Amino acid sequence: xHSNSKAYLVGGGIGSLAAAAFMVRDGHLPGANISILExxxxxxxxxxxxxDPASGYSMRGGRMLTTDNYECxxxxxxxxxxxxxxxxxxxxxxxxxxxxxxxxxxARLVDRRRAKVPVTSMGFSMQDRMELLKLSQADEDAxxxxxxxxxxxxxxxxxxxxxxxxxxxxxxxxxxAVEFKRYLLRFLLEFSRIETLAGVKRTIYNQYxxxxxxxxxxxxxxxVRLVTDxxxxxxxxxxxxxxxxxxxxxxxxxxxxETVAVNDGDLVFLQNGSMTDASSLGSMTSAPAPLTKEDSxxxxxxxxxxxxxxxxxxxxxxxxxxAQSCWESFTVTxxxxxFFDDMTGFSGNEPGTGGLVTFKDSNWLxxxxxxxxxxxxxxxxxxxxFWGYSLFPDRxxxxxxxxxxxxxxxxxxxxxxxxxxxxxDTVATANxxxxxxxxxxxxxxxxxxxxxxxxxxxGSKNLAFIxxxxxxxxxxxxxxxxxxxAAQMAVYQLLGIERDIPPVTPHDKSPRTKFEALIKAxx
Length: 523
Ligand SMILES: Cc1cc2nc3c(=O)[nH]c(=O)nc-3n(C[C@H](O)[C@H](O)[C@H](O)COP(=O)(O)OP(=O)(O)OC[C@H]3O[C@@H](n4cnc5c(N)ncnc54)[C@H](O)[C@@H]3O)c2cc1C
Known about the structure:
This protein is an alpha/beta fold. 28% of the residues lie in helices and 16% in strands. It contains 16 helices and 17 strands. Strands 5-13-14-15-12-16-11 form a seven-stranded mixed β-sheet, with helices on both faces. Strands 6-2-1-10-17 form a five-stranded parallel β-sheet, covered by helices on one side. A three-stranded antiparallel β-sheet has the order 7-8-9. β3 and β4 (56-58) form a beta hairpin. α1 runs parallel beside α8, α1 runs parallel beside α15 (480-495) and α2 crosses α15 (480-495). The longest helix is centred in the last third of the chain and has 16 residues, at 480-495. Bound molecules: flavin-adenine dinucleotide. Flavin-adenine dinucleotide (FAD) binds at residues 10-15, 37-40, 45-47, 60-61, 63-65, 231-232, 271, 274-276, 298, 301, 329, 440, 467-468, 478-481, 483. Flavin-adenine dinucleotide binds at residues 10-15, 37-40, 45-47, 60-61, 63-65, 231-232, 271, 274-276, 298, 301, 329, 440, 467-468, 478-481, 483.
């Protein structure tokens, strides 16, 4: 790799932003040689967050992080300056914030009587423990595309543990057993504190303001070209000495077609697939439109590339069933403190200390979380914002006789107030914006090895993949960390960087202590 090589990043999610930063920081590639090409009008991909008090705030997700894992994420953010605390990095300010606002949920599960469910016991039977042990020690290749239900009996899905674990991480019973096993091991430490979410770390504001903006600002200062409204529709390629080489990019930019030549020594990084592809927003008076990949075209490039190239994976394993990968979130903007006051009284948690409150018997399996306020950089005093989601939007509600998928924001608020037994007056000023995400758990779909390409596939000379749909041993998808780790692996390999990538923290060192830790966790 020489210093006049150019790098093109297709997609502007956190994965690409991280890759650009690693190329500058560790690969010493001049920022001006790097272009990020993003189809949307803003960078950040799934880590979105925008709005104002008049039109309402909206974010597709609210993220939980940890400082015990997320090794590559913090390796990156230890170098990115904070935008609001001069002289500090994003890592420093986040750690300080979490020392001041510790998670200690006191109303993690609420039942149909509106009672807080005691959750110090996981509710496991002996059979659950034996099955969990077997699953957590199984070989991934032997597990193949099996589902969680292939390993655990029906009673397990009624345990307090399942309600907490599945709503913390968004697992469904039909999801990949391999992925569930990886979570059990990667987040083994969380077993001892899952009922209080004490291990969860939060960013100061929503993740667009706290993670995307500082990184984007730093990249801009390094001269990185940040190109939005630019969709890459095709790649030209050739085979050279048996290697796959990208030679050009076709883009649509502001409705005009453009071609970018990829020369010898240049690199291309592709964000293949997105959990928020084809997502749509509703309003107080309308439900989100039921879009699919045919509307967005978001998977097409990966699908084209994978055709006839098994080393580039199998997108159909992930995007084949919206019914199994869809759920809905909602963001609520309030201009009167009643709801927050009542929620604080009910849960016993000040906003920012409680984490998820899950209505475990709700048909939609609804959860909400009240973050520390303000949650947006531009959020004035007197305005509050909270986020919630439901794992079963296809089911008829308990208080609204409709599936959530057909509900507008006002109907979602009615359902929420029903579970809380709050007067509708508490949300009289509310603006609730629903968000449908048809592929939100596509990464959890059952898969076999080979369905996901390696960050740098075998036989590729200058093409790498950075996303939730690449194969990384031991790490867990549906995390910011997975995309950042994929970025670091792809960049270090293609640029020949010798610096060590922080390893996935071993959940335990020897097979013996690992077994003992598992027994203790499943007690
Ligand atoms: C509701 C929700 C809750 C979450 N909760 C957590 C959590 O608690 N903890 C956690 O760590 N993580 C969480 N995540 C996951 C985390 O946000 C994602 O893993 C991460 O943001 C994915 O980043 P990415 O860069 O890989 O992909 P994305 O953010 O999906 O970005 C991909 C980008 O590429 C663009 N793109 C794709 N193809 C093209 C093309 N051909 N041309 C141009 N642009 C293209 C897309 O427009 C998109 O912007 C959550 C996500 C959501 C949505």
